[in-house]
């Protein structure tokens, strides 16, 4: 990992530290409604936290990978039951984007 990418990742984790989870994936897994809410949240906020209220570590890892694959998001960090996801918007809304508001 290059020094620049490492700094970007570090900055994203710092911004994400104060965020609260905006979507929770529970026992039903990734339903269409959950995916629609993830799409909306990523489009509005760019950087979001998602709580994965599912059983094992392997299940959480699989769901996080599936979310990234289906939404086009990048996994920034995974700690316990919470993952931090990033999908940059072409034209971010300065009132909603967590990346712009944190500057």
Task: Please identify the structural class as seen in this structure.
Answer: alpha+beta
Helical coverage, percent range: 40-55%
Order of strands in the sheet with most strands = 1-2-4-3
Uncertain runs are: none
Tell me which CATH architecture applies here.
2-Layer Sandwich
Distance between the amino and carboxyl termini: 24 Å
Give the overall shape: globular
Q: Could you characterize the architecture of this molecule?
A:
With 103 residues, this protein is α+β, with helices and mostly antiparallel strands. The protein is built from 4 helices and 4 strands; from the N terminus they run H-E-H-E-H-E-E-H. The chain has helices at residues 3-17, 32-45, 57-71, 98-101; strands at 21-25, 47-52, 74-79, 82-86. The chain is globular, with a radius of gyration of 13 Å.
Question: How does the SSE layout of this entry go?
Answer:
Layout: H1 3-17, E1 21-25, H2 32-45, E2 47-52, H3 57-71, E3 74-79, E4 82-86, H4 98-101
Parallel strand pairs: 1-2
Antiparallel strand pairs: 2-4, 3-4
């Amino acid at each position: 990992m290059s020094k620049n990418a490492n700094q970007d990742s570090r900055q994203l984790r710092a911004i994400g530290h104060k965020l609260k989870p905006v979507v929770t994936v529970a026992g039903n897994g990734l339903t269409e409604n959950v995916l629609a809410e993830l799409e909306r949240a990523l489009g509005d906020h760019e950087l979001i936290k998602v709580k994965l209220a599912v059983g094992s570590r392997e299940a959480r890892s699989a769901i996080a990978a599936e979310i990234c694959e289906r939404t086009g998001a990048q996994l920034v960090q995974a700690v316990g039951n919470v993952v931090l996801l990033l999908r940059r918007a072409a034209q971010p809304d300065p009132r909603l984007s967590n990346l712009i508001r944190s500057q």
